UniProtKB/TrEMBL annotation:
InterPro entries: BioC (IPR011814), Malonyl-ACP_OMT (IPR050602), Methyltransf_11 (IPR013216), SAM-dependent_MTases_sf (IPR029063). It comes from Pseudomonas saudimassiliensis. The gene is bioC. Converts the free carboxyl group of a malonyl-thioester to its methyl ester by transfer of a methyl group from S-adenosyl-L-methionine (SAM). It allows to synthesize pimeloyl-ACP via the fatty acid synthetic pathway. Belongs to the methyltransferase superfamily. Keywords: Biotin biosynthesis, Methyltransferase, S-adenosyl-L-methionine, Transferase. This is Malonyl-[acyl-carrier protein] O-methyltransferase. Transmembrane segments: none annotated. Its EC number is 2.1.1.197. CDD domains: AdoMet_MTases (cd02440).
C-alpha cells in the first residue's frame, strides 16, 4: 500500500516560513542545481522557459543570465515567491503554481527547469504529464529529485528512539525509473549523484533542515516538541556514524533530462 504523502498546504507553508533563511542554508541545493544546469544540452536555446519550484529565484536568475531570456518562476510557496521577487531584477514573472496543475498553455515552453522540487509532488506521474503537455515538441524537461537513502543516518538514529516518522520519505530508484519510462517522453536519461555533508554536531544538521523548510512534514510524525531525554538518545545513536570529518548526512540525487517527441 502506498504511503501517505505530506499535504500540499503544509509543504507550501513550511517553505514559505523558510524563505528568509533558505539561501544561507542551501549549500547542497546550490551544488545539485548547478550540476543540473551543467547537464543541459549545449544546443538548447530556449525562448520560453520556466523555473518550476523556483524557491528564492536563485536558479531563475542563473537561467536568465545563461540564456539571455526572461524566466517565469513558479512555486507552490507564496513566501518564496515574495522573496524571489524582492531579490530579482524588475520585470520577472513569479506565479503561485502547483506542478501537478500548471497554469500554462499547451505547447508553450521550450524548457522546464526544476531543481529539488518535484520530490514534494504526491503524484510525480501527474507532474511529468503536465510538463509534457506544456512543452513544445522537442522541448526539454530538466529536473532532479531526492531518492530513498537520503538522510539514512538520521532515519536510522531515530529508529533507536521511537517508531514515529521523523525523516521525509523519498521514492526508490526503481520506482523513479518506472515512472520515467512510462511518462511519454521521446528520450530521457538519468544518473544518480551521491552527496555527503558533514556537521560537527547533530543540532547543526537539524537546524539547517528547518532553515531550508525541509524538516519532517510527513504523516505519522510525532506531535509536540522533542524532549531532552529523546534528543539525548537520538544524539547518542547518531554518533555511531561519526567520522574524522564529522557527522555525515548522505543524499541520493537523481539528475534527469527528458525530451518531448517532435510529433505527438
Amino acid at each position: 500500500m502506498a504511503e501517505a504523502m505530506p499535504d500540499k498546504r503544509q509543504i507550501a507553508d513550511s517553505f514559505s516560513r523558510a524563505a528568509a533563511t533558505y539561501d544561507q542554508a542551501a549549500a547542497l541545493q546550490r551544488a545539485v542545481g548547478n550540476n543540473l544546469l551543467a547537464r543541459l544540452p549545449r544546443d538548447v536555446h530556449p525562448v520560453d522557459l520556466v523555473d518550476l519550484g523556483c524557491g528564492t529565484g536563485y536558479f531563475s536568475r542563473a537561467l536568465a543570465a545563461r540564456f539571455d531570456a526572461p524566466v517565469t518562476g513558479l512555486d507552490l510557496a507564496e513566501g518564496m515567491l515574495r522573496h524571489a521577487r524582492q531579490a530579482s531584477p524588475p520585470g520577472g514573472h513569479w506565479i503561485a503554481a502547483d506542478a501537478e496543475a500548471l497554469p500554462l498553455r499547451d505547447g508553450s515552453q521550450d524548457l522546464i527547469f526544476s531543481s529539488l522540487a518535484l520530490q514534494w509532488c504526491p503524484d510525480l506521474s501527474l507532474a511529468l504529464s503536465e510538463a509534457l503537455r506544456v512543452l513544445r515538441p522537442g522541448g526539454c524537461l530538466a529536473f532532479n529529485t531526492l531518492l530513498d537513502g537520503s538522510l539514512h543516518e538520521l532515519r536510522t538514529a531515530w529508529r533507536a528512539v521511537d517508531d514515529f516518522v521523523h525523516v521525509n520519505r523519498f521514492m526508490t530508484a526503481d520506482e523513479l525509473q518506472g515512472i520515467l519510462a512510462a511518462a511519454g517522453f521521446a528520450d530521457w536519461r538519468w544518473e544518480v549523484e551521491e552527496h555527503c555533508l558533514h556537521y560537527p554536531r547533530l543540532g547543526e544538521l537539524t537546524h539547517e533542515l528547518k532553515a531550508l523548510g525541509a524538516h519532517n512534514i510527513n504523516p505519522g510524525r510525532p506531535g509536540g516538541l522533542t524532549g531532552r531525554a529523546r534528543l539525548r538518545q537520538l544524539t547518542e545513536a547518531y554518533e555511531q556514524f561519526r567520522t574524522q570529518q564529522g557527522l555525515p548526512a548522505s543524499w541520493q540525487v537523481a539528475q534527469i533530462l527528458m525530451v518531448k517527441p517532435d510529433t505527438v
